[in-house]
Amino acid sequence: MNPDKNSLFRRFLRLLNLKLIVPLKRSPHPPEYTAKGVLVGMMWAMTPLVGVQMTTVFLTWLAAKKVFKWNFSLPVALAYTWVTNVFTMWPIYYVFYVTGKVMMGDFNISAFSVFAEAGRQAFSVDISFWEISKAIMVFVGLLMKEWGLAMAIGCIPWSIFFGWFSYRLTLKWLYRRAERKKNAGERRAYWHSKISSALHIKKRKMLKSQKLERFSNIEHGFCNRFNTDAQKDIVSFEKQLHSIVVIDPSKTGTLNLEGDAFVTTATDLKIAVRTADCAPVLMTDGKVIAVVHAGWKGAVSGVLEAALLEMLRQGADLSRIVAAVGPCIHESSYPNPDLNKFLSEDVMRFLPIYPDGVPHFNLPGYVMYRLDRAGISDIDLIDIDTYIDEDFYSYRRDPENPGRQYTFIELKEK
């Protein structure tokens, strides 16, 4: 066994990584949302609220969300209260005490050993996470002590500074990490394209959803630019509007159709939408089928919910509906400043600001969020970025040659 791996310093680094870095890496939220959690956690950690920092973070989260409509990552904020745990709190609290005494103009400062012993006696009360009233009583009691008031005052500048500093540092680190992941993805796509071209290999096979294949009476496919044979005998829109217009072609006919979603119970009718960065979405419960063209405008406007309502009207069972989100443009490839005008919280969660100052939209994440919020829990994602993968058309990548690929679904006669 390598002794260096078990040294005190190595163990300390592993503990820091586990407590502070891993929560950031595992956070599924945009950098801004995650960094706000670090800010709140650090600000409360740098206060003398012994044993109840997690409670104060939770109360802050409730107040910020309900009253001020300001949200942050609660798990990350809770994790960062660990910074001033029982092993480090006395030196930090002594700094608060000294700072407070200086701020009050009193330079009669007790020695650290005297301060720590007085603090241990005062903080000997056992406080659980939920015993808020007991925590308040303890804190009020501390304020009544000469050194307790100094701590309460002295922690303020440190709390503000470390909250702000950790927020900026975390945001910078998360943006750089996102940029590295984007560059790595682009390098993989570049070399894949080169190797594929050299070996004359193309991913020409039409993609399918494993979850939709559970239904033996459903035919479906997510076509790429090579799957021309699969696009025969389909019913599609002559014009897609980025709207919430839903049509049943078995009732309206199949000519001169304009809209963004098909829903039907008709058998042997292959319904399809065309996409070149927007998200194609297929849905079925085995009796009713739907195909949706969900760009950001349609998704924000409610095209997915409109299609689901029509499915339910035609007799679909909500608990059995399975959805599959097809290849579309992904967040790292999708700068979208237009979405700044939509200030609703559910949109802004999927619109992180990148280092270039431009917001990028997480279209597949937002589509899946809207489906989940509408009651669809069984969702499949074909995780392909159309901007990066040249087997697919992309309007953003090649606006001068805006081809389209089809996504279709068909209910077969049993």
Could you give the topology of this structure?
Layout: H1 8-26, H2 31-45, H3 53-66, H4 74-80, H5 89-103, H6 112-122, H7 132-143, H8 146-199, E1 218-222, E2 246-247, H9 249-252, E3 261-264, E4 271-275, E5 279-284, E6 289-294, H10 296-301, H11 303-313, E7 322-325, H12 345-348, H13 363-373, E8 378-381, E9 405-411
Parallel strand pairs: 2-3, 7-8
Antiparallel strand pairs: 1-9, 3-6, 4-9, 5-6, 5-7
Quick one: CATH class of the largest domain?
Alpha Beta
CATH topology of the largest domain: CNF1/YfiH-like putative cysteine hydrolases
Strand order, sheet with most strands: 2-3-6-5-7-8
What is the H-and-E element order?
HHHHHHHHEEHEEEEHHEHHEE
Describe this protein's structure.
The chain is α+β, with helices and mostly antiparallel strands and 414 residues long. The chain has 2 domains: 3-175, no CATH class; 212-411, CNF1/YfiH-like putative cysteine hydrolases. The chain is 44% helix and 10% strand. Strands 2-3-6-5-7-8 form a 6-stranded mixed beta sheet. The termini are far apart.
Q: Which terms summarize this structure?
A:
single chain; 414 residues; alpha+beta; CNF1/YfiH-like putative cysteine hydrolases; six-stranded mixed beta sheet; three-stranded antiparallel beta sheet; 13 helices; elongated
Summed up, what is this model?
The protein has helices spanning 8-26, 31-45, 53-66, 74-80, 89-103, 112-122, 132-143, 146-199, 249-252, 296-301, 303-313, 345-348, 363-373, and strands at 218-222, 246-247, 261-264, 271-275, 279-284, 289-294, 322-325, 378-381, 405-411. With 414 residues, it is an alpha+beta fold.
